[in-house]
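[Meeting: bench + compute handoff]

Bench side (C.D.) handed over the final construct sequence. Compute side (W.E.) agreed to return the predicted structure before the next meeting so the bench team could plan truncations. Sequence as handed over:
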Amino acid sequence: MSKPLLILIAGPYRSGTDGDADAIARNLERLEAAAAPLHRLGHVPMIGEWVALPVLRAMDAAEVAGSDVMYDVAARLLQHCDAVLRLPGESKGADNDVVIARERGLPVYSSLDEVPAA
């Protein structure tokens, strides 16, 4: 058994929602649906929004307006992640995660079937 990987699950969160809270929630559910299968494979799933949303809630409006916390958190997380699982769907943030992962030489999987068991 190899070492468990910390795998960032990347895919649409706000993309294509026009800010609709229900659509955003459905996108998060799609991201979270990949967490249990990764766990079953022996890995540690991570979703940037799990970290970014509490950060956003604790910031004042001026701080939020001055940066894109979601992208910043994902970039910081990728300093600790071992791989990325890129789920289907248009997403500037997820595409950026893939770019960062590839720059760092991390594996990028486009399907759960590609992820090796730990």
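W.E. noted at the follow-up: The mean pLDDT is 93. C.D. will use this when planning the next construct.
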